[in-house]
Amino acid sequence: MTYLYNKKLKGNSRNLRNNMTKEEKRLWYDFIKTLPVTFNRQKVINNYIVDFFCASSKLIIELDGSQHYEEENEIADKERDMSLQNLGFRVLRFSNRDVNERFSYVCAEIYRYLNL
Questions:
Q1: Sorting pLDDT into bands at 50, 70 and 90, what band is 73?
Q2: SS3 of 93, please?
């Protein structure tokens, strides 16, 4: 699959990979790394950096902190999701609270969309 890659975001992507949130770390180390498919962390796709990306399933996983629930950020997230969906990706969003309080649910939902 081909898509645009904004080279200007490479440094930001690397920085985000090196400074994951505790929720991103938990999901990555306690679940995603155990899966039989390849995921990338903080992957640049077009003009976005997505939290987790599985090319084989065309799946993007986003973890949302509290800033995502401010009105202007909710609008930006919807536009971002539509842009990524128009490229053929499925975007799953979970709150940090979901990861902290409903971890098994988050894992089950991700697994359901992996097409394994």
A1: low
A2: strand
**Position 2 in a domain:** no
Measured CA to CA in angstroms, residue 72 lies from 67, 76, 85 at distances of: 10, 6, 20
Shortest CA distance to 110 belongs to which of 45, 57, 41? 57
Strand-pair partners of 93: 62
Q: How far apart are CA 47 and CA 80, in angstroms?
A: 9
In a domain, 101, yes or no: yes
Distance in angstroms (rounded) separating the CA atoms of residues 36 and 32:
9
Domain that holds residue 64: 7-112
In a domain, 30, yes or no: yes
The confidence band for 18, taking pLDDT boundaries of 50, 70 and 90, is: very high
How many Cα atoms occupy the beta-carbon half-sphere of 42 within 13 Å? 15
Number of domains in the chain: 1
